[in-house]
Design goal:
Length: 202
């Protein structure tokens, strides 16, 4: 199988009960959410996504985490709330104004690099232990590029991925998730968006 993914993959360390039990919101996440509210920015990560990011991040020590689409820093804030002192987060945002605000938000975090640029600019820092593909079109246009940016055993978290039954014909076959080792979460019974976690076993 060329994808490098195990078809019988299970993320044993991710427990839905644990995810929903995380009720405290770190100050840095609150600051990012406040910034998003001030700017009327409605594309920030949902708390469910943030909790999953927190859980995945806290199992990474001396690792490297990447985020595509900083937005107002909410997703990055959840990562930072669990980031090991010896790990590094690199987040990139294409919008210059938002990128500058996120840089200010994490200015006192020596292991956080907030960049402005195209998502492909993040790839020079690869490989990653965890890659949060949030903003932009990378997760739809170049999935194999994202896979190649992972370390062996690394994770990709795909947020706001429309379930395949709602995909237009031209999208089919891009991720072919039925052939990858993945774990997906529907945010609600009526949601047309889901979170997908995929692991690279290469």
């Amino acid at each position: 199988m060329e994808s490098g993914f195990s078809p019988c993959f299970i993320i044993a360390s991710v427990n839905l009960k644990t995810m929903t039990s995380i009720t405290e919101i770190a100050p840095v996440v609150q600051q990012a959410e406040s910034l998003a509210a001030q700017l009327e920015f409605a594309q920030s990560s949902l708390p469910e996504v943030g909790r999953l990011l927190h859980i995945l991040t806290r199992h990474i020590t001396q690792g490297q985490i990447g985020e595509i689409g900083s937005g107002c820093g909410v997703g990055a804030g959840w990562i930072v709330s669990a980031l090991h002192p010896d790990s590094i987060l690199i987040t990139i945002e294409s919008d210059r104004h938002l990128a500058k605000l996120v840089q200010q938000l994490f200015a006192d975090k020596s292991n956080v690099r907030a960049l402005q640029g195209d998502w492909r600019d993040l790839l020079i820092y690869a490989p990653f232990d965890l890659l949060f593909a949030d903003g932009g079109k990378a997760k739809l246009s170049e999935p194999q590029t994202l896979i190649n940016a992972l370390k062996p055993g690394g994770f990709i978290l795909l947020d706001d991925l429309t379930p395949e039954e709602y995909w237009p014909p031209e999208w089919h076959g891009r991720w072919a998730l039925q052939h990858y080792g993945s774990l997906d979460y529907d945010l609600s019974a009526e949601s047309r968006f889901k979170i997908v976690v995929v692991r690279n076993w290469a």
